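[retry 2/3] EamA domain-containing protein: previous attempt timed out, resubmitting with same input.
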Amino acid sequence: MLVLAAAALWGTTGTAASFAPAGASPLATGAATMGVGGLLTFLIAGRSAVRVLRGPRAVPLWVLLGGIAVAVYPLAFYSSMDRAGVAAGTVVTIGCSPVFAALLERLLVGVRLTLRWFAATVSAAAGCALLALTAGGGAEAGHDVPGGVALGLLSGASYAVFTCYGARIIRAGHSSRAAMGGLFGLGALVLLPVLAVTGGPLLSTPRGLLVAAYLAVVPMCVAYVLFGAGLARVTAGTATTLSLFEPVVAAALGVAVVGERLGAWAWAGTGLVLLGLLVLTVTVPVPPARRRASRRASRAETVPSQETGRS
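[retry 2/3] EamA domain-containing protein: success.
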C-alpha cells in the first residue's frame, strides 16, 4: 500500500508539469522536481543520511551509484515526456523498469524470478503498451517519438538502479528514510546546478514556481518517503512492478483534468495494469483444513530422514 500510494502521487507529475510556463525546459522541470525534492528528503533524514554516506564497506559505493541514477532519472523522464508525449513517456519508463530491476536483482543478489511476478509484470507491461499506443495525446503529441522512447528506457533503467541500490542499503541495516535521504541528497548535488542553469523560465513566474514547488514536495519528497518505507517491506522487483500503478493514475488525470480522451483499447490497458497489480498483491487465504493437511504431510516427510540420519 505504501508503494501504491507513492505511485499514485507520481502519476500526478505529468498533469502538474503540463501547467508549467510554455518556455520551461523539461530539464528544468526534472531538476526542480528531484533536485529541490531530493534536498528536502535529505534534510528530513538528517544525520541518518550522513551516516549512510559514511557507511562501511560497499555502502558508499551503492550510494554513489544510486545517486548517479537519481540524477539521470528525472532529466531523462521529463525529456522523454516532452519528446514522445506524457502518456508514452510515462508508460515506457514505468513499464520497462520492472524488467531492469528484476535483471539487476538477479545479477546482484541472486533473487529468483517467480511465476507470480512474471505473470503480474507481463499483464501490467502489456497494459502499459496499450496505454502508450492509444492514450489521448500520446505519441501524436510528440515531435521525436524514437528519441522519447529511448529516453524513457534510460529513465526506466535509472529508476531500477536506484531502487535496487536503495533496497541493498536498507538490507544493510539502515532505515528507509536514511537510504532515500542519502541517495536523493547526492542526486541533488548534480540536479541543483542543472536547475540554476536551465530554470529561468520555470522559476520566473508565479505559476512556474507553484508547479515546481508542488513537484518537489508532493510527488518527490512525500512520495519517495512513502516509497522508501514500502521498499523496506518488499523486494525491489516487486516495488517496481507495483509502480506500474503510476500510468493508470496519469491516464485518469489526463481524462479528468487535462481533457484527454481514452478509447476502448486504452481502458483495456488500464484494466491489464490493475490486473497485474492484483495478481502481485492479493493473497488468496488458504483454508484451515488445507493448512493442517500441509503441516501433517510436512511432518510425515521429515520422519524417514531423521531415522536415516540416526542409522
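[retry 2/3] EamA domain-containing protein: The two ends are 51 Å apart (CA to CA).
[retry 2/3] clearing retry counter.
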